[in-house]
Amino acid sequence: MKNFAYSRAETVEGAVSLFSQHTNSKFLGGGTNLVDLMRENIEQPDALIDVTRLSPAGIGDAGIAELADGGISIAAAVRNSAVANHHLVRERYPLLSQAILFGASGQIRNMATTGGNLMQRTRCYYFYDQAARCNKRMPGAGCDAIGGFNRMHAILGASDRCIATHPSDMCVALAALDAMVHVEGAGGKRSIAINAFHRLPGDTPHLETSLGPDELITAIHLPPLAFAKNSRYRKVRDRASYAFALVSVAAALQVEDGAIRNVRLALGGVAHKPWRAYTAEKTMAGAKAGRETFQRAAEAELSEARGYGYNDFKIELAKRTIVGALSELAEAGGIR
Amino acid sequence: MAELDYAMKDQGALSPPSTTQIALRINGKAHTLRIEPRVSLLDALREYLDLTGAKKGCNQGACGACTVLVDGQRTLSCLAFAVQYEGTEITTIEGLAADGALHPLQAAFVEEDGFQCGYCTPGQICSAVGMIREFQNGLPSAVTNDVSASVMELSQEEIKERMSGNLCRCGAYVGICAAIGKAFESGATL
């Protein structure tokens, strides 16, 4: 690992100012992804600005607050375990609590921050392998995942430059919840809708988010969503615990008089970003709640899916996981 | 220092050496050390402070052998830069026994054959201490059926899920899970 200059920020303004003092700075959260990437020499920052002290430590309630509109604000440095364990998250947004608990291990969830989770990079093996061609690591180099071992790779929204997937579970729940990402940089503060935060690869797979070069994530806001009480995160993976998703589904459902009144659906493990299933949601609006509707919605969402050989199975798997998760929610009390 | 030089070369020291002085509290004792910012907490413990209980397995956060407790929370010391942990209270396996008496989880691992070669054991035990604290704080897990419920049971299924970040190449999992269950049920202060 290349050595670097370290500084610890005490305020957001201080962090942004420290960041601008080096040409190649990075903000450091829990380090669970960045330290590994630095050890592999994939990331080689000159300076790290530690932003973990900008929110209170521990798995207590600090850093998470109820907003006036009934939503919740989560400070960026709050650890993943603390978010999963917060009573308001567990009661109002169980899919978010579950999504976090289905990711990584207990140790990693204690370390990883909310903002850092959004900034995770893909675990595509070719991205990690310096001997392989990767447009994300070296723009213009080519992509060895296309035509290679691509079992973990994307089936939706990929390009001929990159078929990597976004690794986060938490972000899939945030995509379903329409979370807002609050950021601050030298140019001031703004907020970005979670579904506009991560990008599809297109011709520029090295550009992964819409965050400005000097912008720091300061908080995530969850808008109020009463029917998210009936929500679920379902994850399919190669082993029962501590593995990235082959396919995952975050869903919330409200059924009235047998018809779908409200539904939210997002997929993980299938694209370069958490995939909000708008097409499926439209298909289901007002329709009779049941397997037939869920199947039709899944078919519509995956109609443009494309496999790359080893990951062809994900198309059918995604459909079945959608139907399974929604059926479970319909049975669990979504119908009244 | 031969080992240390080797460790630095292993990390590909290409940039000019730049060290910083940091203060760490480990097992109740204050330590001051001068290190490069890139030194992991694991390397700081093992190579600078002779606390070799925490082990380097994968060095990429996959195996859990390096698990220590930071302010009581289980943490992977291999994915941590030591410099980030100033002002925290770090507990390693060396700090668990009190007055020469084994910590209840250490004793349970001995009684239940919770290890064979022992390499992963310090990480397993530190992880189990942190895991039980998380459970007692009400943290649900991926196998908790209702995350909004406040009452949970620390079943074997829960133990397996919550301990999945610690690998054992000998496959002593049956003993490990039995030891954790036994220590928890004993009601001892963990």
Q: What does this protein structure show overall?
A:
- The complex is a heterodimer of chains A (about 325) and B (about 190).
- Chain A is α+β, with helices and mostly antiparallel strands.
- Among the domains of chain A are: about 50 residues, Uridine Diphospho-n-acetylenolpyruvylglucosamine Reductase, domain 2 (2-Layer Sandwich), CATH 3.30.43.10; about 110 residues, Enolase-like, domain 1, CATH 3.30.390.
- Chain A is about 30% helix and about 20% strand.
- Chain A has 13 helices and twelve strands.
- Chain A has a five-stranded antiparallel sheet. Chain A has a four-stranded antiparallel sheet with strand order 9-10-11-12, sandwiched between helices. In chain A, strands 1-3-2 form a three-stranded parallel sheet, covered by helices on one side.
- The termini of chain A are far apart.
- With about 190 residues, chain B is α+β, with helices and mostly antiparallel strands.
- Chain B folds into two domains: about 90 residues, Beta-grasp domain (Ubiquitin-like (UB roll)), CATH 3.10.20.30; about 80 residues, DNA polymerase, domain 1.
- In chain B, about 30% of the residues lie in helices and about 15% in strands.
- Chain B has six helices and five strands.
- Chain B has a five-stranded mixed sheet with strand order 2-1-5-3-4, sandwiched between helices.
- Chain B is globular, with a radius of gyration of 18 Å.
- Classes of the chains: A alpha+beta (about 325), B alpha+beta (about 190).
- At the A-B interface, strand 1, helix 2, helix 3, helix 5 and helix 6 of A face strand 4, helix 4 and helix 5 of B.
